[in-house]
Fold each of these.
Amino acid sequence: MSNYENTLSPSRERTETFIFDFDHEHDHDPMHLRSILGGKGANLAEMTRLALPVPPGFTISTEACRAFLRKGWPSRLDVEIDEALGRLERRMGRRLGDAADPLLVSVRSGAQFSMPGMMDTVLNLGLNDESVVALARLSGDERFAYDSYARFIAMFGRIVLGIAGSHFELHLHAAMDAEGVRTEGELSVRSNQQLVRDYRVVVEKITDEPFPLEPAVQLRRAIAAIFTSWDGARARAFREHEGIDHALGTAATVQSMVFGNRDKNSGTGVAFTRNPSSGAPVPYGDFMRNAQGEDVVAGTSITQPLSELDAAFPEAAAQLRDAFVRLERHFRDMCDIEFTIEQGRLWMLQTRRGMRTGAAALRIAVAMVDDADIALSRDEAVARITPDHLAQVLHPSFAPDAVVDALTSGLAASPGAAVGRAYFDADTAIAAHERGEPVILIRTETSPDDVAGLLVCEGVLTARGGLVSHAAVVARGWGIPAVVGVSDLVVDVNAARVGGTTIAEGDWLSLDGSSGIVARGPVALTLNSEPPELSTILAWADTIREGRLGVRANADTAADARAARERGAEGIGLCRTEHMFLGADRLPVMREMILAGTEAEYQHSLERLLEVQREDFVDILEAMDGLQVTVRLLDPPLHEFLPDIDTLLVKDATEGLSEEETRLLAAARHWREVNPMLGVRGVRLGVLKPGLYAMQVRAVLEAARMRRDVGGDPHVEIMIPLTISAPEFELARGWVQAAIAEANDDDDPLDVRIGTMIETPRAALLAGEIARTADFFSFGTNDLTQMTFGFSRDDVEGKMMAPYLAKGLLAQNPFDVLDAAGVGELIRMAVQRGRETNPGLLVGVCGEHGGDATSIATLFACGVDYVSCSPFRIPTARLAAAHAVLAATSRRDES
Amino acid sequence: MSNYENTLSPSRERTETFIFDFDHEHDHDPMHLRSILGGKGANLAEMTRLALPVPPGFTISTEACRAFLRKGWPSRLDVEIDEALGRLERRMGRRLGDAADPLLVSVRSGAQFSMPGMMDTVLNLGLNDESVVALARLSGDERFAYDSYARFIAMFGRIVLGIAGSHFELHLHAAMDAEGVRTEGELSVRSNQQLVRDYRVVVEKITDEPFPLEPAVQLRRAIAAIFTSWDGARARAFREHEGIDHALGTAATVQSMVFGNRDKNSGTGVAFTRNPSSGAPVPYGDFMRNAQGEDVVAGTSITQPLSELDAAFPEAAAQLRDAFVRLERHFRDMCDIEFTIEQGRLWMLQTRRGMRTGAAALRIAVAMVDDADIALSRDEAVARITPDHLAQVLHPSFAPDAVVDALTSGLAASPGAAVGRAYFDADTAIAAHERGEPVILIRTETSPDDVAGLLVCEGVLTARGGLVSHAAVVARGWGIPAVVGVSDLVVDVNAARVGGTTIAEGDWLSLDGSSGIVARGPVALTLNSEPPELSTILAWADTIREGRLGVRANADTAADARAARERGAEGIGLCRTEHMFLGADRLPVMREMILAGTEAEYQHSLERLLEVQREDFVDILEAMDGLQVTVRLLDPPLHEFLPDIDTLLVKDATEGLSEEETRLLAAARHWREVNPMLGVRGVRLGVLKPGLYAMQVRAVLEAARMRRDVGGDPHVEIMIPLTISAPEFELARGWVQAAIAEANDDDDPLDVRIGTMIETPRAALLAGEIARTADFFSFGTNDLTQMTFGFSRDDVEGKMMAPYLAKGLLAQNPFDVLDAAGVGELIRMAVQRGRETNPGLLVGVCGEHGGDATSIATLFACGVDYVSCSPFRIPTARLAAAHAVLAATSRRDES
């Protein structure tokens, strides 16, 4: 419980009292007091202030909850509840538990952030054997009174006492069957009275205590149950997932009851002020006659669409429409409302900003900018769109109503859903693709040999590897949905197994790379078409971040570059040159270079590599004409270009090897590494393989000249990978400069910036030295995270990340969300040190964090100039970059 | 040349003039002005001040050299040379190149640090066709004059003009043969005159220019050649090896000539004031009649021992003995002297502190503390002993006169030389050992399976692996000489090949783990016995570092612990528990634990592991009774305990696998990692294998109780490896505390500190958080270096370190010498942050840097409390720790 001692955040200030009536005169608009009143309490107070018809009540603050969780029920709270209840009783002219004219109340939880997993609502509190008689008498409706009493006992039993609902439903369904009715509201008085008796037996049997009949006890137990539920496993898990502070606590509201189950001229409903699915400016919702709120929400009974409300309750419907307009203008957002009609009179029970789909979010935000009465600013509109909204509109997904025969699940490696037929190697995949079949490529893990197969498939599934495995990286780069690291998947030559299920070649399979789910058969997909408001919002986002935080793409091919540019990339921040050598026509030349026995052979293979590289660059520079392209020189260890040792060894022991294979085996052994992540790669290769980097730079420069010859406007930056020291960078810079001098156009030389990746902790620490001669830094946050944590992503993500997150040893997967405390500190330090010695230093980020919203905010705070991410994450990055700028501006304005 | 722009160090202050006469009135004792005057110039000025007979001259400062290397010959230098030469000519009453009474001079280089590879000495400068005639006339000795002239031309040709000496020797030997004489000094005038002509033809033919006859030109060219030689490849390589700044520059001395080749009453010699080999207080040296200095040094002619000087030159010998005493008292050290006797008169040409063996260094240092006239302090005595001195007396080595048939070389992984017969696997090695044969174990690389073989061998040789490979680490830990990573070694089942040479089983082989040399046949070794002064010096060192910097040992066995304690370890800083599971009787239990299918099997194997661990700890705690033992819980990835996949795969493809092997193969595949260094190891294993760490802690505590039961005094610290965050450490601390609570003696509980390794960059950055609940930190500098640089030592050290050092991309191998700028900064930061939140935090270092002198100084400056190293490096660490304390004290005194 020590969590709750630690209430330092300004959102957790101590208040003078624990309880605030809905019409309390706060210093601020109540809607801004969510940290004290909870969302529900704040909005009820706000609606009260707007003179909307809200049943009176009061809110017990989050502070009371924190006090309770620290040290148990605060005695002060008893006094305050009595006082608040006294005020409410005087205002309503009724007393809780009064045998003559009883007040009934609802008790609801309401935390600062909407949060599933918490105790929700208890209605009709205050009923007991005496007050029910009074209620029957006063309402003149015995059925209603006993219906309410029975509902109360079941609800209290379920929610406060934790009894499974089925215990009560058993009796309810028996009663309904016996009377032959279809809804609870139709039950006779007699049945309801019997239900009251049956329910109380259930309670006594399961809890070993009689049902509490004293209303003051009922109220305190309901409040304590709300507070306790804050600490429940589901609530905790949700908060961990969402990054919500466990120490916030929840508020509780106590509100006088109105009765939708009063009679046939009563009802209850939920409504949105606009369509939450499409965003269309038409109210949307359901209601139900003669029912209480839970009936609508639970979906246990049959509801009517909101459009029929006019016919049923013409006066209340008009009043509700009016309330919708006032709420939208006041909250300046689409609202979600819970209402009750009691004997024709409308009551508003709660409101909040309404959840919406991505498409609706975009449409509503843009519409509210255009609506003169709401006059949302463009900044506000952009701020309201979340990365999840974009993901929804940008990727296909399993259709909401689709039948999903889930088979297994793995790491969600590349978003979007895919359907296709299973193939187990590149060749059969290509053949199937050529026959017109959609292909799901299934491999134990992928290697460069599989690239041709990856190119033609709809989705990728692997048994091994983490989120930066070859399959994952390639799939994300190309926007192919992928699920990787499916640990119970065993892949054979032409079949795979998951548990007892066999997947044969050609079997239909579906996968969702956003959730990691793999399903049998073809699952129906929704083909989300991009709503027209998307480009409007992104253009506004671009205006916000202009000159503050750029967005480039990681793109290795002209096709990627074109896709990135279409999605708004302002250049390429990472053009990896190694992927260019993985094509079936290129890999052999690369291997030739590695195997070269003589200097002449070596130079010959370098020349051939130069030719193929030049071609690639011409196309990329064309796609990015007028924009910067940052070319990273060769980075991966050489064994990535060599065949698998295990396979060759087994072949050697059985069939024997050809001469070529024998040489390849020797080379693979020579270049095999214990820890390739920390091995001979990056600029280290440049040192060991003289002329390699110069060849690459020549290829880039020659391509740029070819572009200029046809009137193009190429811009190139050369990036040295894996630097550890200033002398190392200077040596590499020397090669690059010499190659530029050789290949540049003397009359009108291309201006080429030369910089380095910062991806080792040492480079970050020594950034001041390195920046003296570097024109730019680009943080490779993937590798920097691996080295800072000592995490090999391939190894730890599958085995270790889940337990580490579950046990709270890590707050987030640091490969998803940049680790601000460790890796972030290195980046801050490096940017600061680099700019000290080189004030003009350009700073970018080209790790995958460049496409993650939270990380983008951290990186902007570190002082980076641009982020670079895969083409498919560009829209998210544009949005998140705008959010980061807005957040920084608002922090500045506040201070 | 940009190096020379950068003259920021205080040792490179600018002086007002470029030139200082030997008797210049300096503000400080000239011996302290080595950075300006060079070692030679400083000591000549010092001897001049002591009124010893030094031929007059002047020194051209290092500042002149730096100016020359920056921008070429400084015009100011011409003026100053003319002025200094004028003063020297007036003092000597002779003029350079004078046809009547010529002055002749020697020109020598003299850098701040003694440095091979630089241009050394030109004698007799000033001779030409005219001055030689005057010299002949004035000396009345034509033979002497022409001998000097010929020598001068050859020396100038060789040293200043860079002509190979053989061109001159050809003529010289022809002349000597023709005259039938055995030394140069016996040649006739005629022959010498002919040699002058022949030598000048050689010069003109090779340089295409006539020999320069103008003495002013000779002088300037000699000086320029000295300055230029500072930048020569050999000098640069030497400085890189020794860590000397390239920007220092060298000085040059110009000294009036005296002539040891004047006549039979002349001679020249070199002497040490004590025996440089044994340290015995008896002068030691050689001399030669009628010869110039080079003859003695070159060893081309026959010398006489110094003991015969009395007989040859009684007066000079007495004067020299007197000079020896004065020099020793003045320099307070053993000195190395170059002297010349000209016609019976003694001249001192230079002096410096004499090089000495380790044994001599120890004996001299202790003797000079005892000598009332020298009265060296104990601090000074300790400061004079270098780690190399200790290495010489502590390890056997190839005997200096041994014939070494070098076969190849590799990484010098564990110091000392070994001789034995080649065996290629543990079983044959053990059998040979049991037959009484000394064994050299040769493997491609070693694994835990080889441990039994390692235990019995004299030396280890591997083809693969770097300085932290399994073989290297185990060998260093046990003090077994080892050479690893011999890249041209190919190891087969029962033979090995190096190039064309085959090493068969049983062949004799020798290796030197200090130099990396591998030789055929048995090489004679010197069995250095530890000189008695060693313990005196180390005891003095301990007094200096007491309470400032502790020295513990890395020891995993009782034998290691005993060896460490004998050598002065004050506890164990790193007791690795994994090595305890590698014994032939334990590995199967460890594998059982990994393969355990049920919880019961798992618990059963944990219990069995507990038993074997407990036994080991009892012995270790006994060996370290009364001292702290820091136990590191299990660290390595589990696949280290599993068999090699390749081998099983091949066996599977050929003979097939047993059921056991099939399970082992599956486990090996499951636990196989792409980058094991960054994989599931350390505390991560603790999280994945519940109960493992608790079992280990119970074993330690139960062992401690067993020790107490027999009256022992055990002290235990528990160390969590590979921590990345505070919650992770706190979780592990919780397990440890619970296990301690369970196993501790309630009546008299053992006080156990719980701390963590700091070996990931993130742990260093988050040290403030982690220190809140950690009792101690121990820096694992090996892994911290690997992660900070992104260097997998196994992969980069063999392929990359040599080119990186050669190209100056790294100043030192960061695995040998701690990288102060990168890794050191992380350590400084972590110590500071840790002590901020936990002022009582104990800080140690248990990486291999804990045994390296330079690193120890850096670590002490970072604020660590103790270092821990392998038992065999303990004496070095004790000495280096004292040095670090002394250096810090002297820095404090100076400021």
Note: The longest strand of chain A covers residues 345-353.
Amino acid sequence: LFFPSRPCCIEALLAEAAEPGTPARPCPCPLPSGDTALSRLVRRLLSARRSLDLCLFSFSCPQLARAVQLLHRRGVRVRLVTDSQYMGLHGSQIGRLRHAGIQVRHDQHSGYMHHKFAIVDRRMLITGSLNWTTQAIQSNRENVLVVEDAEYVKAFLDEFERIWEEYNPTNYSFF
Amino acid sequence: LFFPSRPCCIEALLAEAAEPGTPARPCPCPLPSGDTALSRLVRRLLSARRSLDLCLFSFSCPQLARAVQLLHRRGVRVRLVTDSQYMGLHGSQIGRLRHAGIQVRHDQHSGYMHHKFAIVDRRMLITGSLNWTTQAIQSNRENVLVVEDAEYVKAFLDEFERIWEEYNPTNYSFF
């Protein structure tokens, strides 16, 4: 998938994911709801049935946060690793996701946790240059690869588990 | 490939690429020359024989710039697309590469040219979260995928050609 993506409405996608089979009420917003790089990304995420592992430097896009929250509500096990310096920036969605009960861990280093990948159901890797921000989605030249090759998925899953354990709050130091 | 990478000396790799077969003189620097994520990345780049297409948001790592310059001197056709706001930052290697005669093009937008990929000989795609900066290589959590699957390579080659043409200086506006 290549970005920038035209702005688009993803209400129909979210409604269908929340209550499959129920016809979605038309959204009153003026945005088109066509097929865009963003809608394709959201569709991939919403295909999660069991787990969603997120490793994201910067996460401020409200539309993607709603998709993640919906999966969490639907019983998908969501884990999120992020960067300690970027998670507190204005517009960050991390607080909202934590508030919703999603497990979040972050680094304690001066170096950045600069990954931008997601793993759906331990079988689909979504990775690239794209930070999950509206600016990146709508204004930047970006790429996102969707890979189901087991070799790549396993390498990124292993990296996720390493980071998840390394950033376990029981390891935090306060001195 | 996952980063951060231990700091390492790539002089032996560069010397071998510059004059294949000639035994490299030992480098007096104190860095180890072992197998690291950085040395693997450099090895992939130095495998180029005909072309190297670079699409890089930020490029300030002198070691990677030396590898690119060496390929250019060896007759490999190097093309580089970068971001107009980041190419002038302190430590950027873009000026040096232009000075060496390498073709560079950049955007004219407020949105970022945020890709970080390289295509070797139109057959190997190197892409991920890694900006080509020493900070990212040595301090950040980063990933780089090396993909030879024709479908992915073609998609990124097409994106490169689109951007290369869009950023042609004959299209620049000065008003």
Note: Chain A has one domain: 36-170.
Amino acid sequence: MKIMVINPNESQAMTAMIEKTCAAYLSPDTQLYVRYGGAGMNSIEGFYDGALATPGVLRHIEYGEKDGINAYIIACADDTGLDAGREIATGPVVGIGQVAMHAASMLGAQFSLLTAQRKSIHVLKSNARRYGFANQCAGVHALDIPVLDLEADDADLNEAISQHAQHIVHTDAAEVLVLGCAGLSRYRKQLEVYLNLPVVDGLAVAITFAEGLFKAGLSTSKANTYRRAAR
Amino acid sequence: MKIMVINPNESQAMTAMIEKTCAAYLSPDTQLYVRYGGAGMNSIEGFYDGALATPGVLRHIEYGEKDGINAYIIACADDTGLDAGREIATGPVVGIGQVAMHAASMLGAQFSLLTAQRKSIHVLKSNARRYGFANQCAGVHALDIPVLDLEADDADLNEAISQHAQHIVHTDAAEVLVLGCAGLSRYRKQLEVYLNLPVVDGLAVAITFAEGLFKAGLSTSKANTYRRAAR
Amino acid sequence: MKIMVINPNESQAMTAMIEKTCAAYLSPDTQLYVRYGGAGMNSIEGFYDGALATPGVLRHIEYGEKDGINAYIIACADDTGLDAGREIATGPVVGIGQVAMHAASMLGAQFSLLTAQRKSIHVLKSNARRYGFANQCAGVHALDIPVLDLEADDADLNEAISQHAQHIVHTDAAEVLVLGCAGLSRYRKQLEVYLNLPVVDGLAVAITFAEGLFKAGLSTSKANTYRRAAR
Amino acid sequence: MKIMVINPNESQAMTAMIEKTCAAYLSPDTQLYVRYGGAGMNSIEGFYDGALATPGVLRHIEYGEKDGINAYIIACADDTGLDAGREIATGPVVGIGQVAMHAASMLGAQFSLLTAQRKSIHVLKSNARRYGFANQCAGVHALDIPVLDLEADDADLNEAISQHAQHIVHTDAAEVLVLGCAGLSRYRKQLEVYLNLPVVDGLAVAITFAEGLFKAGLSTSKANTYRRAAR
Amino acid sequence: MKIMVINPNESQAMTAMIEKTCAAYLSPDTQLYVRYGGAGMNSIEGFYDGALATPGVLRHIEYGEKDGINAYIIACADDTGLDAGREIATGPVVGIGQVAMHAASMLGAQFSLLTAQRKSIHVLKSNARRYGFANQCAGVHALDIPVLDLEADDADLNEAISQHAQHIVHTDAAEVLVLGCAGLSRYRKQLEVYLNLPVVDGLAVAITFAEGLFKAGLSTSKANTYRRAAR
Amino acid sequence: MKIMVINPNESQAMTAMIEKTCAAYLSPDTQLYVRYGGAGMNSIEGFYDGALATPGVLRHIEYGEKDGINAYIIACADDTGLDAGREIATGPVVGIGQVAMHAASMLGAQFSLLTAQRKSIHVLKSNARRYGFANQCAGVHALDIPVLDLEADDADLNEAISQHAQHIVHTDAAEVLVLGCAGLSRYRKQLEVYLNLPVVDGLAVAITFAEGLFKAGLSTSKANTYRRAAR
């Protein structure tokens, strides 16, 4: 099968990291198409960034339909353009923020979401409610660190992130931690050990769930909501 | 004060109608700026149309900020780009779908929403839930008539719309009808008489509420969610 | 048009303040009728006070109907007698607590409510849920200061109120503050500066929204719930 | 123990019927005090009637406190003045609408509510949500028969009510029927046989639950909400 | 009438205490049948314990049906086997956790739940939501003391429990405290004095409510959900 | 990896069908362990059956832990024993009812659930709410055909099921159909063609999601809720 993974922002580093993560989780017989956005942003912080990045995401899906892509992954925790994408895709379309919450809700009674910027808290909280996880999502918290700074490999930063996560998990009585920002993926293993809890990186789950939905013979419904507008 | 009304689609007829409606409800000392989108669509039907139309809406708000606009109205029942627009606006930003529901919830115990296309039902239902009107919104229904066909002035169509609305209101035990499509504005008076119920046209309410929020000294909060991303 | 503003309590100072606030926000062509309750209470604290004050509110609305009043405002954050009033009014009836929450929900992702007495917290929380703002209302808090003491003009009190509000807004991650007690109106400007957030005084919004609903041709629905009982 | 049962309306027939029902369910060692309202209404239909009847209910509770009443029952399905009554009562205060829903939710997965007038539907629906029974309450329906006409003993009426209830229960897939109007009490037995379902008359349950709460040593909490306002 | 009280665990001490509590609250003409589980556990901590204890609870109900039992009480705050039990019982079946929440919601605006082990928090929170008390239940907290240690009569433990409860009630702004563990019954009186709040012991309420439902002529609905499967 | 699939009932035909379905979806490097319950039931209909079948499910998981099983699937749409199973499993545990709803919510705006018996409606509805799908689940409906009769290969039955599903999907405006009974798996393809909608068979999804969660390095959280009770 063919999976397209779309990074809605233009960060090359992020795109490379996404490609690497995909390689680690992909089935041998899945062909991978990684794409990135073209709206000039290196990170998506809030609704405005998301709105500007969406047309680029949709363009990739339109090309993907011509290339026979079987499933799409939107590789941003905000699930940039998810509903719009489903209108033009034949196969399933999942966002990494969305599947991370789905997975977390099957692993523990409640989860916390950790994101980079305070601006993103409401976007994620609002998504959590929309997807149905109002009760399971015990809290959404920001590191207050610019997304791009997360790429530094720095012992102090590592320790600060671990402690912050610990504090959040304790406050929320969370049983699972969801990484609500693709830039946090590299801290997953470290946090899992530090917190002694499952830590969900949406991208890893998205790869396997997108493959799973396709293998189970499922596609996006073309009744009503996700039917293409007749013009 | 200065109000900008943005029609997210490119329909000239719709824009003219919006301008006319605004003129009827505007305070004498309010200056009106009517703008329309530039994404090539004559109507917004569903998430995909909305996503493509949003950058145009945002561009108008950015220009508006330079022109000292005090409040913005997004003149589409889907409230295209509402959250994103708030990030870049100083004054209040309201959508006509949103204020229509707010108004309806103050006039009767529950309301029905009537839209043109079935594709829009979920967009509106999802907005109703997000704004807090899950209990007040008794149903969202589609006429299954293309938005642009609503512009025809035709006795049969008029009667069909009235009967359809009657059926909806009866089924939902609705006490107020909300017009969930700008193209339905012209039927408001007719429906009010036919149904003997308040029928809410979001645009009329949006004008007066946007003026009201500004007069009450209120603006969009710049804490967290609607703060512009630092770059 | 004619608007009647009803202060459900008997405080002359409060009534004078209401009259003054109305004058500041009213359209030039609106005639104002300010009335106050007659149940012997100088403030409404809790359900019991509200229940005893309601018949007085309703009597004013009954007189108002004879005088051709076009819209009513109940000038208590508890929205004393709101639903009952709608049964006997032709035009729209809004409460200042209600419209304050409506306005706040259009200005930020979540708001906090500040009231005078702990007894009122549940009344306001329960109203917030009923109106649909369970998600938007991040918290309701009491100053634990008697309503009437708020009328003192005292530097220490001013500072205490500002600090208390700051604490609340921080704890709730609120983006808007709603004043849930008419006695707090005089602190609005001060709090807006101190908190750097929109601070909503329901009365100001109520004036403009009540005018707006009337100008938009809307009235209270007489289907089912708010139809007068046949006797 | 001493229980006061307050009929918020002035109907002598209803008061007599209440007294008779109480006698059938009361424990031998409970002293019964039946009181009725004094606001001139023979039935409570909607919010307005409820608001006018409330002060009379509260006055009885105030007298009751002097007489050492241990628990109060408000004998109207709308639970007229329930929250206000709790502020001035020491012992538990329950409404017959409220306890009927509590009981029904323990007997089947979902219940329907049957009331006399359409005006009361929203009052009851709103109460159901407030008490927590949004999911358990599958529907609220009106017979559209004046409350007082229910007192007629007429075979056609009996049959009509049974058929109407059958229709409601079928439509809602209800497993329990709740009588949402004191005037329907006399049909309980008949409906139970006809529908082959538990049919809950709130008054019967209220007597036993009020006795139960008192016997279990419980009283109304005087923290915050139901504490009497300090004056 | 005949009531069967089933302790789902095997603790003899707990069973004796249950018998003693029942004796204190039972009506003189009610015959009491106390039974205990047979799955080898001395306390029910979490879903797993609950699942293993359920068949024993059901067996007792099956015997009870042969003995003409009129109502059943499941004497564990987790309400072990409640839904399953209703399928095979004719009369009402209530759990002590369930009725405690019902009672608490009639005595104050919101309640806190106190249990022994952290494992039980989610079970109780999930039950609170299912029964409809998501808004009324302000928090569920654990003492982190093994259930069986609660049987010790120790001044230090008493003081620790009182202080812990005080802290919980303060944090949650709770107006009622619900004891979410049968082992806490013995602390009810002490806590009521210390907190100056109603403290609900489910067993006491269960006795009186079960009697009340039966006296009011009510039984478990045999429509759909609680109808025995046809085999 | 090793996956254990547990059929909570004793039906050999069902177990064989499960084994066959698994073979169709399993990754080549996954070892499959199919087990079936031992409580003497050939189908699980309602809470009582579920409660009696649960200990058998748990016993298989306990054995599985000794055999190094990496993920568990409970192959009943009621998700028999799901929470309890998570307390004793190291790897993820998913139910086929649960994952079917998760998948459906990613493929369309709302789904309908189809089950065999009316007794199961509330079990599934209650699960849908608990998992977070109250808004996405537009309705749960029963065929009113005994589970075992579904195994007949009969043209009339096939047609009846298709028509019934069509009716349900139309009534609910569903965009996806979820098969809420393992016995319906064999009708999936037929229904997908007939309805022109995605039709979700939980077992197929469960296989791929369970593999996916394990591949993504995730396991059941051992904080609080799903930690084994210390004894």
Note: Chains C and F do not touch (no CB pair under 8 Å).
